[in-house]
Amino acid sequence: DPADLDARVRAAKATLGDRVVILGHFYQREEVVTHADFVGDSFQLANASLTRPDAEAIVFCGVHFMAETADLLSGPEQAVILPNLAAGCSMADMADIDQVEECWEQLTELYGTEPDENGRVPVIPVTYMNSSAALKGFCGRNGGIVCTSSNAATVLEWAFERGQRVLFFPDQHLGRNTAKAMGVPLEAMPMWNPNKPLGGNDERALGDAQVILWHGFCSVHRRFTVGQIEQARAEHPGVRVIVHPECPMPVVDAADESGSTDYIRKAIDAATEPTTFAIGTEVNLVQRLAAQYPQHTIFCLDPVVCPCSTMYRIHPGYLAWVLESLVAGEVPNRITVPADVADPARLALERMLAAKP
Ligand code: 13P
Ligand code: SF4
User: Fold this and answer.
1) Which pathway is it part of (predicted)?
2) Quick check: CB of 218 below 6 Å from ligand 1?
3) Residues marked as binding for [4Fe-4S] cluster?
4) How many Å apart are CA 353 and CA 247, to the nearest integer?
5) pTM surpassing 0.90?
6) Which CATH architecture does the domain made up of 93-219 adopt?
């Protein structure tokens, strides 16, 4: 019973008081978000995990890579808890550390290791936050950095100051959309095929590459289409179309704007006149924004409901269970990144936090 679960979460949270902090990503369902102390995009939540060093436990209502990031940034004594361990991210799973290491070896064979006359190394690896801690560690070990959808351009600039080209993974769309907006021509963005050796990848294209893209994508955002945008424009003259940069390039190009989940929230918040917004991102966020801003008309571009199925795995029942376990002195579902991965992964994250626009 939802009311019963809500009461159980409230009671356990009240008993724990300041001992616990609950973080919630914008894509979480309403029954979970209502209990969160901080709600935000993945960059904001990474920062939020630094703000309560006094809390014994950080309960992360989001997906696995976000909880790993919170573990990397929080204090060593703090336990980061993911209420349901099955809450992963299919995009993060698309870049596997062995395949990335193999790609790196082949790129090193192709480009060598010598810096150019400006001291820029041949390749800087950049991983999207939506990746395993192992991949963040790979970036930390190899002079690279992490980005999120809210700072991808800043991070790419950081990388181009230090490298002649970038290997960007796992999300091809965020990489392509961001680099294109910075003026990188599409021909200079070949996609690496991890199932082929160097000779099977287009060596001529790699020779001219500025950004080498990985083949990953988000199964939620790739569902948005240019046809949906055309339909929204036909049915709602004057509509403002805002999409997440994980959408395919033609969709981002056809939209009026693109940005992270918090960018979308801020754009709606800043609109002074009643406006119609068609939004290309996860439906839980779109529905919450529609309820919070009744002066506007806000709808999801995809008429067939489009949730992130793994974010949805954080059911309030799991939240009640982990909080009640903490009350009972147990620490369930703790996410701990092993030290050998944690040190370089933290370095890559700290480079991101220090990179200024
Ligand atoms: P944000 O960084 O915009 O919160 O995006 C996270 C995410 O998983 C989008 O699919
Ligand atoms: Fe991963 Fe896409 Fe879900 Fe974000 S929306 S957590 S990228 S599957």
Assistant:
1) Cofactor biosynthesis; NAD(+) biosynthesis; quinolinate from iminoaspartate: step 1/1
2) yes
3) 89, 218, 308
4) 25
5) yes
6) 3-Layer(aba) Sandwich (3.40)
